[in-house]
Amino acid sequence: MRPRELFVALLAIVGLARRRRRRRERPARVVPPGAPSPRAELAVLALLLVAALCGAGFVVAYFVHPNTQVLGAALAGALAAIGAALVVTAQHLVVTEEVEEDYPTPNPEEQEAVAQIVAESGSRLTRKRLLGAAAGLAGGALGAALIAPAVSFGPLFDSSSMYATPWRRGRRLVDVDGNPLRAEAIDFASFYTAFPEGADRESIAAAVVVVRLPPATLRLPPGREGWAPQGILAYSKICTHAGCAIALYRTPKFAPTQPGPALVCPCHYSTFDPARGAAVEFGPAGRPLPQLPLTIDAAGELRAAGNFSGPVGPAWPGVRSHPAS
Q1: Alpha carbons 37 and 214: distance in angstroms, whole number
Q2: Which of 54, 74, 91, 223 is the least crowded, having the fewest Cβ atoms under 10 Å away?
Q3: What is the greatest pairwise CA distance in the chain?
Q4: Which residues contact 91 (CB under 8 A, 6 or more apart)?
Q5: Is the domain covering 165-304 a CATH 2.60.120.620 domain?
């Protein structure tokens, strides 16, 4: 199958090469007329409808239950069906002839001749409007499938949900099993993951990392003097670079020759200093991890003393000018 034949087939399907009718006498045919092929037209129509269904299925699957295998199969099916429709059109519905000659100098007459050849090559098409509508439907469905993932970039009109968190003053910190975290159980060389009691743990702002440092080593930003009772600190678990989970905790074994404690993202190795408000020490992260203020209740359990110091997750336009809510 030559590229020229596929190109002519595409023009014949979408009807872009319809020759405008002129009042002057129609010129003699350049391409001999071809006999209609209803079966081939029905095959092309069926393939275009399959492509449309696959494109629509991609959109539905993306919003209902996104699965990479299903999405890939739907997109591949749409492209394969469109390709097959072009092949069938080129082989069975486009009148072709091969003429070898030197490439002529472009001029209006030659351009008219080319347009006439393309128009006459589709003389075997008897359902041009129906095939054109099916081609438009397939193209529209495929276009919707390609555009649908753009909604994952975030809310378009109301971005307030990107700043909301489940943390409120007095909310207790619990572990993965739902047990309250007690201040006396937080060790100096350990790393803990905590969640807000009774809240949705799937929220991007739910999980926090809890560490403990000697109070004398803390150099927190101004205004956070009381955020780390007994040296216990809590920071968002979501890296501010690409949204990965903070899953590593560096503790020095040969102080002071080794670097101090640090929270590390395993994806791109952004490194944050918990003693200085999770300031970025290394890596591509553009801002510190948001800090959660803590308090210890009468039972010795850790509770939030308020909300995060800033928006959770990767940076985006306006992230520095909008407080967490």
Answers
A1: 84
A2: 223
A3: 100
A4: 1, 5
A5: no
